[in-house]
Amino acid sequence: MIEIKKIKVLKDNYIWIIVNNKRLAIIIDPGESKLLISYLKKKYFPIAIFLTHYHLDHTKGTSYLYKKFPKLKVYGPKEIENFKFITFVNENKEINLFNKKWRIISTPGHTLGHISYYSYPFLFCGDVLFSGGCGRVFDNNYHLLFNSIKKIFSLPDETLIYSSHEYTIQNLMFSLSLLKNDKNIVSYYKKINSCYNNEFCSLPTTLGFEKKINIFLRTQEDLVKKSVNLSKFSSSIECFTKLRILKDFY
Fold first, then answer.
1. Same domain (yes/no): 129, 196
2. From CA 59, how far away is CA 49, in angstroms rounded?
3. pLDDT given at position 73
4. DSSP sequence for 19-64
5. Domain boundary at 162, 197, 224, which?
6. Total of domains in the chain
7. Residue 104: what are its φ and ψ, rounded to 5°?
8. pLDDT at 196
9. Residue 73 belongs to a domain with what CATH number?
10. Contact yes or no for 60/9 (Cβ under 8 A)
11. Pair 79, 203 in one domain
12. Does 136 lie in the same domain as 21?
């Protein structure tokens, strides 16, 4: 049996920690180490790190953790070149830990080498998909992120999505600027806003719920296309691209 713990670090990052009944831990995207070490100290012993991409707010604590726990296995995509101790993993590679097979899903777009880790029902997707939104696109590769989100869309609706940032309020506000009368989005925004503070956590969310409130998962809908001044005959990728560009400047 496993549990998922979390630490909120930096401004709005989450470090997710998968723990088992033997008090062992797998760490997802350690953007810092001080708070994490303090949390682990009397509770859990880390045996592995899963990295989703190279950005510092996801990797900065890795070297110190490895020095402190030199038997750590560190997994990540090939775009992370600054750690000699990393084990590179790619699409459909499986990591067997805690009596579960963690499948690697290639999810580029936010960065070219971004990966996600999936073992039903858990998905650790870094900066690809957030509650109510998706990650920024670098190098204008909108089609890459669109296709990555399509992969996630095909997973079971009960999939638990563990994103790496608390962006839900901002994402819902953007969505409401386009779809102000969407009942699902309005209802969820009111719920989140009523209890939001610095300690609030909206995650994990489920894929099935995101299909209702996340406009980046609804780019096939005529109403969403209309909200960004596209015709119903426009493609989903056109709608996705326009939404993402609008979000960048929101």
1. no
2. 10
3. 97
4. EETTSEEEEE--S-SHHHHHHHTTT-EEEEEE-----HHHHTTHHH
5. 162
6. 2
7. -85, 130
8. 81
9. 3.60.15.10
10. no
11. no
12. yes
For the entire predicted model, the pTM comes to 0.96
Both 65 and 115 in one domain: the answer is yes
Looking at the structure, tell me whether residues 154 and 35 fall in a common domain.
yes
- 242 neighbors 230 (Cβ within 8 angstroms): yes
DSSP for residue 71: T
Residues 36 and 116 in one domain: yes
Query: Residue 42: what pLDDT?
Result: 80
What does the pLDDT look like over 137-168, one tens digit per residue? 988 899 999 999 999 999 999 999 999 999 99
Is there a contact between 17 and 5 (Cβ–Cβ < 8 Å)? Answer: yes
Q: Longest Cα pair distance anywhere in the chain, in angstroms?
A: 58
Q: Name the one residue in this structure whose structure tokens are 């560190």.
A: 74
- The mean predicted confidence, pLDDT, of the chain is 96
Containing structural domain, residue 237: 168-248
| Residues 172, 152: Cα–Cα separation, whole Å | 20
User: For residue 136, what are the CA distances in angstroms to 38, 126, 143, 146, 246?
Assistant: 31, 12, 12, 11, 11
- Where is 112: in which H helix or E strand? none
Residue 235 CA to chain centroid, in angstroms? Answer: 25
